[in-house]
Each structure stands twice: as C-alpha cells, then as structure tokens.
Write a sequence for this structure.
C-alpha cells in the first residue's frame, strides 16, 4: 500500500505534526513516504536536515520534497491542523485522503477522518475518535504535592515564545523559588541566553520517557499535555492562542492564560492543590480504553465505493455522516447520498444471505417469504403495464411476448409472477445458488452475472421491453455505467422500474444518523423520491410514477419497532404516512424516451 504522509511543516507550526508523521512513516515501512515541501521548510533547512534534527535517520525515512501530480497514491494522510478546500482538492487528485485532527474548512470533505486530541466539538464527528491513539504511557501514579521538580516544555519550535514568557514571569515574581526548574530546548528553538539556575535539556528525542520524573509540567494544549497527564504529573497550560485556551477549558485542565501568564491564576493554583484533583479523573479516562496504534489503522483505510459523485462526476462534496468503516457524502448538484466504504472484503451473496441474514431482518428465510414477495410482484407488474408501450400486445396471441429482465432476481418470485402475466422473463443474479434454484426448481430462465459487467453477447441492445431492479440499484457501485446500460438494453418506450430504501422516509427523518448507520455496508447510494426525476432524465429515462411503500406505524413512535400502536392509531399514522410519502421504501417507474449520445 503506497502511502504519503503530509505534515504541517512550515515555520511557526511547531514540530508535533512532523514528529507524528515521521514516527508513522518509520513504523509503516517500505511503501510509506513523508512529504516535506521544500518551499515550506526552506527556513528550517533541507529535508535531510529537518529529519536529522528531529532524531531520525535519513536512511530509515523515505521522503519527497515536491509533488509529481501524475503519480497516484493509495492513501494521502494529512496531519497539518488546518487544510483549506483548494489544498484538499489538490491532494484528492493524487488519491484517497485521510486526515488527523483536521480543523480547517476541508474537514467536512475529507474522505476519512481520525480525531485523536479531545476537546473540540464538531457538528459531524470523525470516523474514529480515540485518544488512545496517542500511545500514552500507562503509569500507575498520582500527582505529588508540594511540587519540587518542574518541567517546562513547549514543543520543538515554540513559535509563540512561551518558554521565555513563562520563565520571565516565574523568575520575576519568585513564584517557584527553591524548585528544580528544567526547560526542554526543542531542535528548532532560536538561540538565546537563558536565565541562570535553569537546567536546560537539549536533544531530547523521547520526551514521554522523562515526564514521570517531574511533579509539575508546564506546556500548552496538545500531545505533550496528555502525555504529561498520563505520566501522573500535575499540568498547567500556557497556550499560544484563544483556540487552545478554549480546548483547555473544555477539558478542564488548569490554564494560566494566552501568550503571557496570569500570575493571579498561577498563585491560586499553587495555593489550592485540590484544583488538580480533576486531572486524575481525566487520566483514568485516558487510560481506560484498550490501546490502538495509527500504524495498524492506516493500512486498513482501503475504499470501496465512490470518492466522487458518479452521476455528476462532482469531486468535492460534503460528508453527511461518518462511521468507523464508512463515510456518506451528498452530491451538491444531484443531491444523491453516496457511500465510501472502507474494507478489504466484498459482501457475499451466498445461501447464508438468503437464509440466516434474511431471517434476522424479516423473521423468515427468503424462500419462506417467496409467496409474499410474489404477491407484491404481481402488484408491481400491474403498475408497469400502465406505462408500457404497445399494451394491446398482452391481449393478442399473434404478438410476441414482451421481453423482461429482472436484474437481481434472487430466487425468482418476480420472474414467476412475470411469466404468469405473459412476459418472456429472464433473470440474472450474482448468487450461484439463487440462479440454480430458478433454473432447476422454477424451470425459468436466469443466468449468473453482475449487472454492471454484462455485455452485448448476453443481452442485445434495445431488446428489452422491461428492465427491473427490486432493491438492487442501491447495491450497484458504478451507478453511472449501470444507468447507461439500462438505456442501452431497453427499447424506446420500454419501462425501467426499481425499488429502493427511502432517504426521506420516517426512519431517515426521525434519526438521519441512525438511518445511515443502520444501512447495509453495500448500499452505495441512498435515493429520495425528490431526486429521481432529475437523475433519470440524464439517462433518457422519463419518470412516470413513484409509489412510496414500507409504511410502518410503529416507526413513528418513540421506541420504534419495539412498540406497536393500537389499531385505530396505526390506521391514522399509516394514512398520514401515505399522504406525506413517509414510507421507508419507494418504487419508481420510468420510460425510455431517447437513445443516449456517445458522449453522454
């Protein structure tokens, strides 16, 4: 897996992002590179010099200092605090994009998000939110008071010059008289004359290992803050910005201001050790979760689905929901929801899918539900016939039977109903067991295939009168190609009919996030009745009718399926659901009106 790590490395951004990505690249090994933009790091030196200054060997780190825009990467990892849309657009052209602790405008558009540092609340949570990814030390200790040994550490660069500001204030006011004060000098610190009596720690390549030696640690909000808490030391934060101060207060970590220490706050903290008691609770929460490592998570970010809208080919769209193995986006043009699924295994439609999985959802196996599905099929065929050209053919034996293809026919209930209603019916399905059942038990025609991959030798262009997909279209990953194929296979005037979950039904309206979380991982699209016409028009298919189905009164109530209303209330709710189209599924019937041009 070819991975490119992109840290924030400009002067003034500190070294935390660089350190984290260097460590990750080292652990990932051969196919991982770090991007050290030569224009951004020129004030710090060459890429080799920067890598060496942070304690890494150039022989063990693969790096590039410029981007070849013709080169593709399996994964780009952004660890740069804030990324704008223009920057994200550039990186997304190179490959799939993940980001760590991203706080810029690109956050809502990133393909996969990992939040490690807690404190900031976003309207849309990350795919993974886990502070245990900090690789914190697991030390059983509580803070020690009175404080005797003090450490001051503000990262590898300290661009806000917090070290000097804090030392000047402490020494001037004699607040830590008699204490053993130690100052970490980062590799990118500007040289200066530090006060006498302060022990300087230089070339510290493993800061976390020395933190347990100290009673009190001064730092700012970030990685070192949480490493210090896990080490058992008391922590006081002096922050470089109001933003960091807000995060500190949100986490209830003692802080003494922005840029310059507030002496009154500091005195209050020193005289009231109980103010630090809450730090032990924070520490317990930090160490409660099982440990995970970025090096184990990053290689698993392999996408199945669409990183751009396949209908509009619009590349940059906002996410609407994120889960550990999925991100849903909404196209800002056609408004369809599309899924990017992170997995290395494809969904299997074998006999277990139609037995155990089907039983878990519906209380019976697919074959046990066969007659019910077939009854629904008869009703669907009546609706299809209303819009089929040359309807008189059904009443005359002198005419050829209309040809029908049921894509995703499963065990054939729709094929059986279509044959009974006078169609020359053919089915296809990716399940070998289902196709065998149709051929052998029902003695009907079906073949094993993926609809997206069938060619002209299987079904001739413009040969079908009807093409149906019952709860299949949401499973098709390459929707654009599939809808073009629908147009190519249908005769002009032929009918395309499909059913799918309703993204504007009661379940989706009541709990949008819960609805998407419950959607199967191979539902690559979430349709809504309002968007169907515009999308089908693009493919020469004129929408004729939408039937909203799946009306479940119990889903309108708190408690959902566990609570069913009385008969009178259920009837009333069902009527409301039908009037306002709030069913959890819907069916669409469209007619082919034109052939597609080659460039469409």
């Amino acid at each position: 897996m070819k991975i490119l790590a992109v840290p924030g490395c400009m002067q003034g951004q500190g070294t935390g992002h660089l350190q984290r990505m260097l460590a990750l690249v080292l652990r990932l090994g051969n196919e991982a590179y770090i991007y050290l933009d030569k224009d951004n790091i020129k004030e710090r030196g060459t890429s080799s010099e920067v890598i060496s200054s942070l304690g890494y060997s150039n022989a063990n780190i693969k790096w590039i200092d410029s981007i070849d825009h013709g080169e593709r990467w399996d994964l780009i990892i952004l660890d740069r605090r804030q990324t704008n849309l223009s920057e994200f657009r550039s990186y997304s052209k190179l490959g799939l994009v993940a980001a760590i602790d991203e706080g810029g405008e690109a956050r809502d558009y990133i393909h996969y998000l990992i939040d490690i540092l807690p404190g900031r609340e976003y309207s849309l949570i990350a795919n993974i939110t886990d502070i245990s990814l900090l690789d914190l030390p697991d030390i059983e200790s509580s803070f020690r008071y009175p404080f005797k040994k003090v450490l001051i550490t503000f990262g590898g660069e300290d661009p806000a010059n917090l070290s000097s500001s804090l030392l000047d204030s402490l020494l001037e006011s004699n607040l830590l008289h008699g204490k053993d004060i130690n100052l970490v000098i980062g590799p990118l610190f500007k040289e200066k004359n530090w006060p006498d009596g302060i022990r300087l720690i230089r070339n510290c390549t493993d800061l976390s290992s020395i933190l347990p030696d100290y009673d009190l640690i001064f730092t700012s909000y970030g990685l070192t803050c949480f490493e210090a808490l896990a080490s058992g030391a008391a922590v006081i934060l002096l922050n470089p910005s109001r933003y960091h101060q807000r995060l500190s207060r949100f986490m209830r970590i003692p802080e003494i201001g922005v840029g310059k220490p507030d002496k009154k706050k500091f005195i209050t903290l020193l005289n009231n050790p109980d103010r630090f008691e809450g730090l032990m609770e924070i520490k317990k929460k930090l160490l409660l979760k099982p440990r995970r490592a970025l090096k184990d998570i990053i290689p698993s970010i392999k996408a199945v689905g669409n990183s751009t809208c396949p209908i509009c080919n619009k590349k940059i769209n906002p996410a609407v929901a994120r889960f550990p193995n999925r991100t849903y986006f909404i196209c800002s043009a056609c408004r369809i929801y599309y899924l990017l699924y992170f997995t290395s295994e494809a969904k299997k439609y074998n006999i277990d899918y139609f037995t155990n999985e089907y039983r878990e959802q519906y209380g019976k196996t697919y074959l046990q539900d066969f007659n019910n599905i077939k009854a629904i099929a008869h009703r669907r065929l009546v609706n299809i016939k209303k819009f089929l050209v040359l309807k008189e053919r059904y009443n005359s034996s002198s005419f050829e039977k209309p040809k029908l293809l049921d894509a995703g026919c499963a065990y054939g209930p729709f094929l059986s109903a279509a044959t009974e209603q006078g169609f020359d019916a053919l089915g296809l399905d990716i399940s070998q067991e289902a196709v065998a059942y149709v051929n052998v038990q029902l003695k009907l025609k079906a073949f094993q295939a993926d609809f997206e991959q069938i060619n002209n030798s299987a079904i001739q262009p413009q040969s079908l009168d009807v093409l149906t997909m019952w709860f299949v279209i949401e499973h098709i990953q390459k929707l654009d190609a599939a809808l073009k194929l629908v147009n190519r296979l249908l005769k002009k005037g032929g009918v395309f009919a499909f059913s799918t979950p309703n993204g504007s039904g009661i379940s989706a309206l009541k709990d949008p996030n819960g609805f998407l979380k419950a959607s199967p991982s191979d539902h690559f699209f979430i349709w809504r009745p309002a968007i169907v016409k515009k999308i089908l028009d693009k493919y020469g298919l004129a929408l004729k009718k939408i039937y909203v189905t799946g009306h479940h009164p119990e889903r309108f109530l708190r408690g959902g399926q566990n609570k069913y209303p009385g008969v009178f209330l259920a009837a009333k709710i069902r009527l409301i659901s039908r009037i306002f189209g709030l069913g959890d599924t819907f069916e669409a019937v469209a007619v082919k009106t034109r052939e597609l041009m080659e460039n469409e």
User: Anything to note?
Assistant: The domain at 149-288 is CATH 3.40.50.2000 (Rossmann fold). The chain has three domains: 3-115, 149-288, 351-592.
